[in-house]
Each structure stands twice: as C-alpha cells, then as structure tokens.
C-alpha cells in the first residue's frame, strides 16, 4: 500500500515536471514563430514574473521527481542517503515555489480582472496561445 502511494507520487511528479518543461519549451519557441514585443527588450523573458515562476516550478518538480526516485531506490536498498536532496526540495518549496507561485497567480488574475492591458494586452492574443497563457498564469 505504501509502495503504491510512493509509485503514484513518482508518476504524478513526472507528469507535472514534463508539463512544465513542455510549457517552458513552448514559451521559448514563440520567438522563432512570431515577433514577441518584450523578448528583444532588456531582460528578455526573464523580466516577466510568470516566466520566472514557470521555470521555478519546472526546476522544483524535477527535484521532486529525482527525490522520489531516490526514495524508492533507498527503500529497495534499505538505506537513507537522500536527506540533503529531500531537505533542499522541502526548503525550495517553502521558500520559493509556493510563495512565488501563489503570488504570481493571485497578482496576475487580480490585475487581469482590474485591467487586462496591465498584464496581458490584447495584441498578445495573436502571439501567445490561450492555453499557454493559462499554463503560465493558472496552473501553479
């Protein structure tokens, strides 16, 4: 029963990690397809908190996946050698992944509700697909 739960957690973290890596890749591919107004300016994509959060979530779930694989391996070998990685994962979650992810979602949609032009001008609809906008602003 416990082993099944650990396996399910590994699968879940892998799927989420793959989703974030795919979303980052799709976001990066936008410039090769069409002109993105902010990409060529100072800071490129890294000046957008939604993009930073997307990369942060991809890194976090990659670490979660690696820690889960390691914990399954340690159970097979009956030893505990991943305490540093698990501690790093837990610290990353509590210090960056959760607070930044929560802030991005709440602030993005609050500003979007108040005045869409502040965070996602209408001309970006032709450049950034709707699903990618929701992946960057909702699924954190």
How is this structure best described in words?
The two termini are 29 Å apart. 75% of the residues lie in helices and 0% in strands. The model has no long low-confidence stretch (mean pLDDT 84). With 140 residues, the chain is mostly helical.
Distance between the termini: 29 Å
The largest β sheet comes out as: none
Structural class: mainly alpha
Assign an overall shape: elongated
Mean pLDDT: 84
Content of β-strand: under 5%
Detail the poorly predicted runs.
none
Please compute the radius of gyration using only Cα atoms: 18 Å
Overall helicity: over 70%
In N-to-C order, the SSE pattern is: HHHHH
Helical run tally = 5
Beta-strand segment tally: 0
Can you describe this structure in just a few lines?
With 140 residues, the chain is mostly helical. It has helices at 2-33, 49-77, 83-114, 116-119, 130-137.
Reconstruct the topology from this structure.
Layout: H1 2-33, H2 49-77, H3 83-114, H4 116-119, H5 130-137
Helix pairs in contact: 1-2, 2-3
Question: What are the main properties of this structure?
Answer:
single chain; 140 residues; mainly alpha; 5 helices; elongated
